[in-house]
Amino acid sequence: MVQAVLQNHDGGEKDSGRAPVDLVHLARHTLGNRALEQEVLRLFLRQSELVLKRMEAAEQTKVLGEQAHTIKGSARGIGAWKVAMAAESLEMEAAAGRRGSLMALKAAVGEANGFISGLLEN
């Protein structure tokens, strides 16, 4: 999976750090096991959507912070760095008793999930 995605249209190497999911990081954490990579990515798709719904419904900043912490850890596990940074920002806002905006997190999750869906279709 990693090599196939790291090649762009003209055959050159693509910088894995620029993709919504760092596939080199993912491969390292799954020891190159493609089936495990796919399962972890599927789990992230499901969990990220569930967490976003919980965050939208959260009435207390504590719950918002807990959900942000959850998605931050999951995102770091697969190398979805933009998602992790947006979640960390929300987590810090919640720790300070403020409700941060979900816009950046939703955008980052949408980008990562679109990328993941494309990978899983191949």
Automatic annotation (TrEMBL):
InterPro entries in the cross-refs: HPT_dom_sf, Sig_transdc_His_kin_Hpt_dom
Q: Would you kindly state one Gene Ontology biological process term found in this protein's UniProt entry? A: phosphorelay signal transduction system
UniProt feature coiled coil, ranges: none
On whether Phosphoprotein is a keyword of this UniProt record, the answer is yes
**In the record, what terms sit under GO molecular function?**
protein kinase activity
Keywords carried by this UniProt record: Phosphoprotein, Two-component regulatory system
Q: Tell me if Cell inner membrane is a UniProt keyword of this record.
A: no
List of residues that carry Phosphohistidine: 69
HPt domain: residues covered: 29-122
- Its recorded name reads Hpt domain-containing protein
* Species this chain originates from: Stappia albiluteola
